[in-house]
Known about the structure:
mainly beta
Amino acid sequence: MGRFVGVVSVITLLAAAPASAAELTRVATSGDPNNPFDLDFSIRWERLQKRATISKEVTQAGAGSLAEVIDTNLLRVSDVTNVVVPRVAVGLYQDLELHLEIPYYLAREDGWRYGLGPDGLPVDQAPISGNTIQPDGGACAGPCPLFPVGGGTTVFQGGVAGDVKAGLTWGIFSDRRDDTKPFWLVGLDVTFPSAKRYDPAKGRDASWLSPYSSSSTTGPVGQKAWKYDFYTALSRRMGILDPYFKAHLTAMSKSSSTYSNCDEVAFAASQGQASATAVANCALPQWKDKAGARLPYLAGLTFGTEIVPFEDAAAGQKVVIDLRASADYTSSARWYNELTDATGKLLQTDSYVTILGTLGVLFRASEYVAVQGSASLGTVSSHLITGEALGANGGADQNPNYDWRWDAPGRRFRVGDVSLFNLQATFILQF
Length: 431
């Protein structure tokens, strides 16, 4: 009984103590009576890892004279990115923040190899290495591998700065100013296409290996697209709990140098990786814009709560355990995906959902210094990663992105069994 009373007393004291909003809804502020100016600086390290299985539709004989299409697992892919992100935030006015991020990519390694079948034995490599179809649908003389798999099939990028991101965040309501309200913020972040463009086809050799297939030669990371992220978040401290909610919508638009498969179509055709029709149609006015990249949009929700087992408001000290779950929807697109580094092309990708669960910890040593860390596990829903539409009537109306080897029904690729594992560590200085 005594222990129960003690726990209730601690919770009561914490509930009565001055409480700040959840870290997710923290905003640099200025112009307050006891806080004339906020300047926050942080440096964040992120490690993003994705592993997945890629399958291909294969047509095989069915019962009687019928044929059936089955998904056959062929490839295992691994994509690991390490990035350091310095961030600075300045309070412009009461709960109005201007912030800037400039990521630096230490390394990205995207590799693919043949996987194992359900029996634990190597998969049949024939759908890729034994391909007999040309990009225009005609037969090729002897096997024409779709793309190399095996030795050297890893693309290395990094050692470069990424796209600059800047934004404004405004706290519409503040529980510090009015304890009858939650903390509610809205914001807009703009990502500028400042990083050098990554051209997935340029510079490939006769076997279609990327020029960045050696760790001694790393490629750029830029996708040359504008990104606009609109978001809103709410949090409300209740004792030792601080539940929060966030919603966001990310729209993208092309810049003047966004990559198109038509940029390198003549070179791809000379290497047997594009058809003569693709070369001809890329030059037609009606395909100038239609054949280019078709960018996705994202929409997502995050729900979570902070648990605050210790807080000394007077000293600015705090320990936080952060539990959250998020789900993001990504629309269909013609964009970079899990097979771009292998095929050297932007590919038609179906819509999908990404789900993540995150456990985080924050230690605030004072009002000026804090460290934060988190680990996330997640997955992505299975979806097609090839499958362009052929076009209305063929000829000049044929989509120049269409490749009979992997866009025709019965030959398409799909990604599944995706596992995501992300780590993050942040050092924070606040003045």
